[in-house]
Every structure is written in C-alpha cells, then in structure tokens.
Design a protein that fits this description.
alpha+beta, four-stranded antiparallel sheet
C-alpha cells in the first residue's frame, strides 16, 4: 500500500509496535529446553493482549500464531513439540493484523551458548538489513536494495537466498506491489515511491542460494543443511531513510 492519510500512519505504527513487542518477548524466551509450541504461545499471548491477530493464521490458516524455524529450517516453521537445544539457531517471524492493517518482522538468535561462526553470520545479516534500510529511499530502484544486500553478504563470504524476498505490506500481508529481492536483478526497473509500505528481510546464508519445502507443506529448508540468518522490518518509504514501524 501507499500512505494516503495520517490515519494510515497511526494505524501502521500501532500494529508495528505490537509486532515489535511480540518479537522482544519471544527473544527473551529463546532458551534451551523450551518447545517451539511454548515459544509460539508466548507470542500469541502478546498479540492477543494488544488486540491483534496472527496474520499467518488469518490469511493462510497457518497452524501456529508465529513462524519458528530452527537451524537449516529457515522459514515458515510450524511450532510444535520440538525442543530448542543449546546452540540451536532459531528464527522467529511475527506478522499480525489490527484494524485492517498489517506489519511483519523477523529475528534470528542462537539459543544458549553461542559460537563465533554462527554469530558472525547473524551480524552479517543484521548489517545487510541496516545497509538496505539506508538505501531504501523514494526514487531508488528496488534492485539497488537487493544489490546492497547481496554485496554485504558476499563481502563477508556469504550468499543470499534467491527464493525468498521482502514484500509490499500494509492493508494486506503480501500486497503484490513490489518484491524486495535479496540480490541484484538488472531487469527490475521499479522504483521505490514516497509513502510505500514494504517489509525488507535479508536472508543471509553460509552456503545456500536456493531452498526446498519439507514434507509438512510449510517449512522451508536449505538443501545442504547450511544455516541462514534473517532479520526483517516493516517500513514506510520517505525521501530520506525509511520510518521503521517494527522497532520498539
């Protein structure tokens, strides 16, 4: 969507903050011994306490309030009986709706003991998102955002996932207005416009460029089992740096 009124901004800030608060509460509970179902329940309770609804449930009938993916499973993981182990790399992806407006955010964190190799991957993915946000201004081609994400990963010896990308959002979870690729596509000539609402989410991998779907019909994994870190914010595009909606 594109911002039309002040009401749009107020409503998006509200749902964005709820998503951010949910991410923060779930992050505190990414500890060895907790099940993904219990972690999901924590997220669902925060959303409910603020009057928001889980977007994956609402839009896609997803079997969980949030997506929780562990290690080589990098997106759309179904919460369940899986116990988070010490050293597991856990991705939480929270999207929600309130009063007809949507926001989406993601975060990757290692549970318990941390190792330098995994932390280096996470820091690179965080940097990729930061650089993408610096780049995402009105008038800039979408492929320049993808270019900086890919360059940031490549400079540190990593790859980006080509099958997953950021997206338009606002009055729907995925509105089809734009795809924010995690690599440079010279054929993509679309430009960001002032007032556009987009979710930017770099997926930075130790090795993988593609993904495959698991037998549960939802979870996405890397074919060779390599780790991936993802961070995501929903933002409003301006002539300067974007307004980050999903930040506490």
């Amino acid at each position: 969507m594109s911002i039309q009124t002040e009401k749009d901004i107020i409503a998006l800030r509200k749902i964005g903050r709820i998503v951010a608060l949910t991410i923060e509460e779930m992050k505190k509970n990414i500890v060895p011994g907790i099940t993904t179902a219990a972690l999901d329940k924590i997220g669902e309770e925060v959303l409910s306490d603020h009057g928001a609804r889980s977007a994956p449930k609402l839009v896609y009938n997803f079997p969980g309030a949030t997506c929780i993916s562990i290690n080589e499973n990098i997106a759309h993981g179904i919460p369940g009986n899986q116990i988070i182990e010490n050293g597991d790399l856990v991705n939480i992806d929270v999207s929600a709706e309130l009063d007809g407006y949507y926001a989406d955010s993601g975060y990757t964190q290692q549970a318990g003991d941390q190792d330098s190799e995994t932390q280096r991957l996470c820091e690179c993915a965080k940097l990729a998102l930061q650089e993408a946000l610096h780049t995402a201004k009105a008038g800039v081609r979408l492929n320049q955002v993808g270019k900086i994400i890919e360059k940031t990963a490549k400079n540190q010896g990593y790859t980006t996932i080509k099958d997953l990308c950021g997206h338009g959002i606002g009055k729907s979870l995925h509105d089809g207005s734009c795809d924010v690729l995690n690599y440079y596509d010279p054929l993509d000539r679309k430009r960001l416009k002032e007032g556009m609402v987009v979710a930017i989410e770099p997926f930075v991998s130790m090795k993988a460029r593609r993904i495959k779907q698991t037998d549960d019909g939802w979870t996405l994994t890397t074919p060779e089992g390599s780790l991936v870190a993802q961070y995501e914010h929903t933002v409003i595009i301006t002539k300067k740096e974007p307004i980050i909606l999903t930040k506490v």
